[in-house]
Amino acid sequence: MLSKKQKDLIAEIWEGLISVADDIGADALLSVSCVPRSVRRMFASYPGTKTYFSHLDISHRSAHLLSHGKKIVLAIAEGAKDISQLTVTLAPLQTLHAYQLRIDPTNFKLFSHCMLVSLACHMGEDFTPEAHAAMDKYLSAFAAVLAEKYR
Amino acid sequence: MSPALPDTFAQKALTASLSLALRLILFDGCLSECRSAQTWGLITSTADKMVVWTDFERSTIQDIFSKMDYEVVGPAALTRCLIVYPWTQRYFGNFGNLYNAAAIMGNPMVAKHGTTILHGLDRGVKNMDDLKTTYAELSVLHSEKLHVDPDNFKLLSDCLTIVVAAQLGKAFTAEVQAAFQKFLAVVVSSLGRQYH
User: N or C: where does chain B have the smaller number of CB atoms within 10 Å of the terminal CB?
Assistant: First the structure.
């Protein structure tokens, strides 16, 4: 589905984002915080998505928001390491989303879009159309696999 | 004689719930998901009465577009759309070489058309309180002559959002994004209005 070139591009982008996260001393969350920022963007542009978080404190810079955003980015980054194994990598998350969270899959599209916006803000010109296409394709595949156990 | 429920009460309740539904739908960006003509008619018929712009939204939109170089952003958005969503190329059969990303990015007809599109958006920026009328003619054009699937308007507007995000970086905050996307959503809705 994704070409080798696209897979390499994606792995490269995520490696760059995660390696900054490992450096706890620095303003580490700055890059990885592109994901909590994505979540915040999603809440601002698509308020309906907030309904899934009524049990958490999702105000600006809340601990819940940051930790949740980080969980998501790590899962996406993990998947990016070997895209051909997405179904295996995501198996536990598939079960979680299908039987417990039951998030309507339309929301995955909304989040993916906000992820892309955050990446564009972070990478500027480096977020070329090719990178954008590859990332969009990957996030669509990720969302599709995540929803596989729904029915 | 039972007390008559004032018609205005029922009307207000209906309008209030329609307005809430509309706002949810607009913000959810689900316009393209509404297939049934009936729902579409309902949404678009109330859309023009319902769009209220906050001061923040108004000034954000004016600010972004006033600082924008249409001849850079327009082509960037259109080329991005043609590359990221290649099926959109179906509408540009007579544009020459769209064979790969490099060809698309170097194609002068694409660049020119991208600029044209941005100037079209500019009209909306200058008429934010009557987007329905502003885009009526263009809507007919896209429907009757160009036969463009209205879903494509959303694809292009997403690409435009990404281009602007890349340019503004941190300044493209969640609130700015929401305002920008709201504007584009109403434009997209106005453009789809005359389809039948």
Answer: N
Which domains does chain B possess? Answer: 53-195 (1.10.490.10)
Contact B191, A55 (CB under 8 A): no
Is the pLDDT at B41 greater than 50? The verdict is no
Q: Which two tokens stand for residue B90?
A: 């179906």
- How near does any CA of chain B get to the CA of A44, in Å? 6
Question: ipTM above 0.85?
Answer: no
Whole-model pTM: value is 0.78
Mean pLDDT of chain B, nearest integer: 83
Please name the member of B84, B166, B175 whose beta carbon is closest to the beta carbon of A125: B166
Displacement of CA A150 from its chain's centroid (Å): 19
Give the Cα separation of A79 and A88 in Å (integer): 9
Residues of B in contact with A43 (CB under 8 A): 174
Candidates B128, B177, B131, B129; CA nearest to B157 is B177
Asked if A46 lies within 8 A of B29 by C-beta distance, the reply is yes
CB atoms within 10 A of CB A135: 24
pLDDT at residue A122 in the model: 87
